[in-house]
Design brief:
- This is ACT domain-containing protein ACR.
- This protein has 288 residues and is α+β, with helices and mostly antiparallel strands.
- Helices cover 30% and strands 26% of the residues.
- The chain has nine helices and ten strands.
- A hairpin with a 2-residue loop joins strand 5 and strand 6.
- Helix 4 runs antiparallel to helix 5 and helix 5 packs antiparallel against helix 8.
Amino acid sequence: MSVTMASLGVGTHLSDNNNNNCISKASENRVPSGALIRGTFRLATKPFSVLHKRQLSSMATNTPRASSATALEDESDTVPTPVVIIDQDTDPSATIVEITFGDRLGALLDTMNALKNLGLNVVKANVFLDSSGKHNKFAITKVDTGRKVEDPELLEAIRLTIINNLIQYHPESSAQLAMGVAFGIVQPEQQVDVDVATRIRIYDDGPERSLLYVETADRPGLLVDLVKIVTEINIDVKSGEFDTEGLLAKAKFHVSYKDKALIKPLQLVLSNSLRYFLRRPTTEESSF
């Protein structure tokens, strides 16, 4: 079953001022607590500056916080796992974002408006249902270029904005998300052991590229940090997929070295670099 929504351009109003908040909140309150956020993307390979995770968090567009009553409204129900997908491979001209949270998601009008505040156009929106729930899918382009998003920092800001809105309108989801520690009312009951959760695999994917798979504990800024580690050893990230599934993050990157697949010694260097970075203790800048 599929329902296609009207395309949204710059300056398009979803409703008048008197009704906008009511419509937005009503629609957002139907988002399931176990939503899934996942995505695939082509990345710019030029050098980029890496923001501190506090700066990335501040880039996420904030919306009014939902009341604690809303958080407890469905406490007797099993909260689904939130999933967010960022997909760069499906559409050559747009970044595809898919959000799933059981059957609790509405039209996500506030989320689309929040993305527009990041300098983005939602050019197409689509909703479909399957056994895993209701899937809201957006096609996104940059306002200034009309093209898909390739900047890792902006992609991470998109991810944080979506998660932040999900937590604001569905507080019960915060207990299922690593970002609930930073943004949520309800803290996650379980903490993921990074050593146990971290998995890194590299596969041959033809003569011109390799497939890098990384699974680890989620946290703000992770997408940017992964790309930084890969590009610092002169490996190009051609495209990829970044999934936020509850407390875990799963990334799949198509990578190459001088337009060739990675040879075994270079695969080992990349794997060890990522493993060291993901498992080492982190220290806040403010502690110095």
